[in-house]
Design brief:
The chain is an alpha+beta fold and about 120 residues long. The protein is built from six helices and four strands, in the order E-H-E-H-H-H-H-E-E-H. The protein has a four-stranded mixed sheet, sandwiched between helices. Strand 3 and strand 4 form a beta hairpin. Helix 2 crosses helix 5. The model has no long low-confidence stretch (mean pLDDT about 95).
């Protein structure tokens, strides 16, 4: 089952969820702000999928900009990045869909087709 971390009022998240539903792909919708993954959960996602941890950050988000992470993220350790991600779901690129070794960040129809169908 795909864990689908989203914000219910995010239009991109709604498009991605609709795409999965339309194609009969089952997933577990999870509100990324209410149930932000823990540092350990993010560590497991990174280890299982081999995704670059920096790609998990919502670099266009207000929270990312408010924390000045554009200039400081590269100086942070892996553990510090895990702690940041788990501290606030608004820092996470969404939707984040993950299932074992598979992951998608954001929504691109071709990527969803290749990964989840």
């Amino acid at each position: 089952m795909i864990k689908f971390y989203q914000l219910p009022n995010c239009s991109t998240c709604r498009k991605a969820a609709k795409y999965l539903e339309t194609h009969g792909v089952s997933f577990e919708p999870i509100n990324i702000v209410e149930l932000t993954p823990t540092s350990q959960e993010f560590k497991k996602i990174v280890e299982d999928t081999n995704v670059d941890i920096d790609l998990l950050f919502n670099k266009q988000g207000a929270k990312f900009k408010a924390l000045n992470l554009k200039d400081t993220l590269s100086d942070k350790s892996f553990e510090e990045k895990l702690d940041l991600l788990s501290s606030d779901g608004m820092l996470v690129k969404r939707p984040l869909a993950v299932n074992g070794e598979k992951i998608t960040l954001g929504f691109k129809e071709k990527e969803y087709e290749a990964t989840w169908l």
